[in-house]
């Protein structure tokens, strides 16, 4: 579904991505791993049209590099940023309503789905989003993106700062996406979660992919783990 080839990106004169190549298939969870500063978030932002890039980003065979973020989203790619961009003065329900794709028919997701997966959001549906806890805001950001019924969702550090029970809940949630035919590009530092739920693992270092393989392959590659993942 998503095919990235020879992708380069810059922040001013700083060359951040150096020929990144990877693919994400239908109903596949691909984990993009690496230390802070390795280029993972920049890769996501470039796919979404938030950072200018050079090379090729093909979505279902259509070149999307150079498109604006809203155009990429309309094509069926959802993005959950690391900073949990919510509308703080709107209620939980209003935030979800804003994520709903206008005129969408036969959506895989409904308000009932969101509230069933995360009952805490149902309890607080009339509460302003700005007073929610960090974990609740993360749930809301994930659910708001899903209300747009994307075919691929890019999620940047969804478990950062969350309690262990909420981390497990997010992992179950991501597996439910796969069961419903949604592909996932998971940007994550927690190796345990990524290895538990992903079909394939990519490891980034210095703006390039330094490993691609199965979770079992990564487990057995002590050099990659020590050189590019362990702090």
Quick recap:
The protein is α/β, with parallel strands linked by helices and about 230 residues long. It has helices at about 40-45, 70-75, 90-100, 110-115, 120-125, 135-145, 165-180, 190-195, 215-220, 220-230, and strands at about 1-10, 15-25, 30-35, 55-60, 60-65, 75-80, 150-155, 185, 200-205, 210-215.
Shape: globular
Content-based structural category = alpha/beta
Reported for the largest beta sheet, the result is: 6 strands, mixed
Q: What is the distance, rounded to the nearest whole angstrom, between the alpha carbons of the first and last residues? A: 33 Å
CATH architectural name = 3-Layer(aba) Sandwich
- Please provide the ordered H/E string of secondary-structure elements: EEEHEEHEHHHHEHEHEEHH
Count of structural domains: 1
CATH-derived topology: Rossmann fold
Query: What is the β-strand count?
Result: 10
* DSSP summary: helix tally: 10
Give the key terms:
single chain; 231 residues; alpha/beta; Rossmann fold; six-stranded mixed β-sheet; four-stranded antiparallel β-sheet; 10 helices; 10 strands; 26% strand; globular
Description:
The two termini are 33 Å apart. The mean pLDDT is 92. Helix 3 runs parallel beside helix 6 (134-146). Strands 6-7-8-3-9-10 form a six-stranded mixed sheet, sandwiched between helices. A four-stranded antiparallel sheet has the order 2-1-4-5, with helices on one face. Helices cover 36% and strands 26% of the residues. It contains ten helices and ten strands. The protein has a single domain (2-229), classed as P-loop containing nucleotide triphosphate hydrolases (Rossmann fold). Helix 7 (164-179) links the parallel strand 7 and strand 8. It is an alpha/beta fold and 231 residues long.
